[in-house]
């Protein structure tokens, strides 16, 4: 018997071993040793809504939005909806003063349904179809980010009022991440290489269209960038290009959108972007570049997605079985996996996993948390530490799963996608319900 068994109230006073770098600020242990988020015990959410389930801390999302607004008081902060686009998020971020970026007609529809002012919506995508451009123009979105010469032709045919556009440029900055997330380099599918004939042609063509108004440039350097210097370099290169446009066409572009990509920590010790430092570096680079080219300061826009919602999300799973392979690993199989978290298979992402229904204090084992999907590679976390006395039925929680989890989820193996449950002030509410087998069957035509 431990001291905690004799005096259970000591638990609430125990130093938390939940790393504040990866868990929402309002994460605690309750008197029974269970993890609570936004004042709600995660084990209760698992009981009420089943598992796998995404939990989202509303206050954490709002706090992150406010932090960006404080750090960049003069910039436009545009939430990148691809990280997680549901009506509630669109409402929260716009209530906090952010704009919203969408990259499909579907995301646009969600933003509009949430009541986002179309003028504060930015439309992205390297493969926007005619119908998507049509939907964006008809909705009156504030800006469309042009990604190809074909789009210019389509947009000039569609726009009845002057449509504000940005041109997406790749500034040739290599942030050295996973190949799938390095989007600042010249040879990749997004945008036009900065300084290329194609980029110059795009600018010239837009300026010739009376119903298109070129207001600025856009770039996106990649994902999980923790070195703010890359953004300083982007500012220098992009402002120089804006000065070229003034020289060649006598037009002054007023907006510079630097995209998103600010790193968050998925596990304790991971590097993350310091947004105060980022603000200083962008400010200094802007001052220097504008002075050098005698160019008026453009309005800076930033498009954080992950940095707004990642840490607000926690995914809950229930342990289904525990298997010890002689001379091999111990596999803890849970009722979710690559269907709700494809980032492990896509990018080799790594996560922390903890027991949520009790605060274990005894011996630990090394275990591999395996997903339930029929793929040998469906592993959520390899060789992590879990309590040696873990049992089927217990609830495991994976932090930092608010971004690119629900939005990348699939119904592989005909397993429906998990619900999203919001927590705030001791209450929870279901934002998105679980996808049922009936939902999946509803698409069968015969
Ligand atoms: C154009 C653009 N803006 C913003 C983002 C958001 O990136 P992050 O969620 O890493 O901040 C992305 C992500 O791919 C993007 O492609």
UniProtKB/TrEMBL annotation:
EC id: 4.1.1.20
Binding site for substrate: 306, 343, 347, 375, 404
Record bears the keyword Amino-acid biosynthesis: yes
This protein's record includes keyword Amino-acid biosynthesis: yes
CDD domains (alphabetical): PLPDE_III_DapDC
N6-(pyridoxal phosphate)lysine PTM positions: 82
Catalytic activity from the UniProt record: meso-2,6-diaminopimelate + H(+) = L-lysine + CO2
Signal sequence, renumbered to the chain: none
Keyword annotations: Amino-acid biosynthesis, Decarboxylase, Lyase, Lysine biosynthesis, Pyridoxal phosphate
Pathway: Amino-acid biosynthesis; L-lysine biosynthesis via DAP pathway; L-lysine from DL-2,6-diaminopimelate: step 1/1
PANTHER family per record: DIAMINOPIMELATE DECARBOXYLASE, GROUP IV DECARBOXYLASE
Cited function: Specifically catalyzes the decarboxylation of meso-diaminopimelate (meso-DAP) to L-lysine.
Subunit-structure text: Homodimer.
Protein name: Diaminopimelate decarboxylase
Species for this entry: Nocardia panacis
């Amino acid at each position: 018997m431990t001291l905690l068994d004799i005096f259970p109230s000591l638990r609430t006073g125990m130093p938390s071993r939940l790393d504040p770098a990866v868990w929402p600020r309002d994460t605690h242990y309750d008197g029974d040793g269970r993890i609570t988020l936004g004042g709600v015990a995660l084990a209760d959410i698992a009981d009420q809504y089943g598992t796998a389930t995404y939990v989202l801390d509303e206050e954490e999302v709002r706090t992150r939005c406010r932090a960006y607004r404080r750090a960049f008081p003069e910039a436009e902060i545009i939430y990148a909806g691809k990280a997680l686009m549901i009506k509630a998020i669109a409402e929260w971020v716009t209530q906090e003063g952010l704009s919203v970026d969408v990259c499909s007609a579907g995301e646009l529809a969600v933003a509009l349904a949430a009541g986002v002012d179309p003028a504060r919506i930015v439309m992205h995508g390297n493969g926007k179809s005619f119908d998507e451009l049509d939907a964006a123009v008809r909705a009156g979105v504030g800006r469309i980010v042009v990604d190809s010469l074909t789009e210019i032709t389509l947009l000039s045919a569609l726009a009845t009022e002057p449509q504000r556009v940005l041109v997406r440029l790749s500034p040739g900055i290599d942030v050295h991440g996973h190949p799938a997330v390095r989007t600042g380099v010249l040879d990749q599918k997004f945008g036009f290489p900065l300084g290329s004939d194609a980029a110059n042609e795009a600018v010239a063509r837009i300026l010739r269209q009376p119903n298109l108004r070129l207001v600025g440039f856009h770039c996106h350097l990649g994902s999980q960038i923790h070195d703010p210097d890359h953004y300083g370099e982007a500012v220098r290169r992009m402002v120089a290009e804006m000065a070229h446009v003034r020289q060649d066409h006598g037009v002054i572009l007023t907006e510079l959108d630097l995209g998103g990509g600010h790193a968050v920590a998925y596990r304790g010790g991971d590097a993350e972007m310091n947004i105060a430092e980022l603000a200083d570096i962008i400010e200094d680079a802007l001052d220097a570049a504008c002075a050098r080219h005698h160019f008026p300061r453009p309005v800076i826009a930033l498009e954080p997605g992950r940095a707004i919602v990642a840490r607000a999300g926690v995914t809950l799973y229930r342990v289904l079985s525990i298997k010890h392979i002689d001379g091999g690993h111990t596999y803890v199989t849970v009722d979710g996996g690559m269907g709700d978290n494809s980032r492990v298979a896509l990018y080799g992402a790594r996560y922390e996993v903890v027991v949520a229904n009790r605060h274990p204090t005894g011996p630990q084992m090394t275990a591999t948390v395996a997903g339930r999907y029929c793929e040998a590679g469906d592993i959520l976390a390899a060789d992590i530490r879990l309590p040696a006395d873990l049992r089927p039925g217990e609830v495991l929680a994976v932090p930092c799963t608010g971004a690119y989890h629900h939005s990348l989820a699939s119904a592989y193996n005909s397993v429906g996608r998990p619900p999203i449950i919001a927590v705030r002030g001791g209450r929870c509410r279901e934002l998105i319900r679980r996808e049922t087998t009936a939902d999946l069957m509803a698409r069968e035509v015969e």
